[in-house]
Specification:
Elements lengths: L14 E5 L8 H16 L3 E4 L5 H12 L4 E6 H5 L9 E5 L2 H9 L4 E4 L4 H15 L7 E4 L6 H12 L12 E3 L5 H7 L14
Parallel strand pairs: 1-2, 1-5, 2-3, 3-4, 5-6, 6-7
Helix pairs in contact: 1-2
Length: about 200
């Protein structure tokens, strides 16, 4: 049973992209936070765009949001649809030609990106959107939900990139980290502003 939490409506956050895993075998804490994120976003009236799958954290986010009457849009490559990996009860399931188009479609027109813990696919999506932000191609908040301190090694690696001058000190403003899903909406609203002009120091 998911505990009821009251939150203030933050209607400016209309649509978000959520990256998360499809593994069914991870610790229960990850499933609990995935469900809480879906529930929290739905109660806020925020549309979720995600990878369209029914398994693992992907399915749990979608199921929790749909149970609250939320809108959930899945984006699935054709080969995954052929394998029947898609969630059958979504508000909308968009079929795209390949993985590259999937990532582009998921990020189009969203007010933020949220990353739950995941495997190599989730990490690839997260690092690519950080790269887009560095280049000024994506300017919205990026929030990592650090369940069980999962993202600590990645955050340490990003900090090493800054220390070793592979990224600029200002690039630290590209992401935010929260301990649990109840902090996500506030993190989105309070994230440092970012503009396409920041590409001017992308190679410094």
């Amino acid at each position: 049973m998911i505990a009821k939490h009251s939150i203030n409506k933050q209607s400016a956050i209309r649509k978000v992209c959520v990256y998360c895993a499809s593994s069914r075998q991870v610790d229960a804490a990850y499933f609990e936070d995935a469900a809480l994120l879906g529930q929290t976003l739905a109660r806020n009236g925020t549309t979720i765009v995600y990878g369209g799958g029914a398994a693992g954290l992907m399915g749990r986010v979608a199921d929790a949001a749909l149970a609250e009457g939320g809108k959930v849009i899945g984006v699935l490559p054709g080969f995954m649809n052929d394998l029947e990996w898609g969630h059958a009860s979504l508000t909308e399931l968009v079929i795209v030609p390949d993985m590259h188009r999937r990532k582009q479609k998921m990020a189009e027109g969203v007010d933020a990106v949220i990353a739950l813990p995941g495997g190599c696919g989730t990490m690839e999506e997260l690092l690519e959107v950080l790269t887009w932000k560095r280049l000024g191609l994506f300017t919205k908040p990026i929030v990592m939900v650090n369940t069980r301190r999962y993202f600590d090694p990645l955050i340490a690696f990003l900090e090493q990139m800054i220390r070793e001058k592979f990224m600029n000190e200002r690039h630290r403003k590209m992401w935010s980290v929260v301990e649990n899903p109840l902090q996500v909406l506030e993190a989105i609203q309070t994230a440092p502003k970012w503009s396409s002009e920041n590409r001017n120091f992308a190679v410094q």
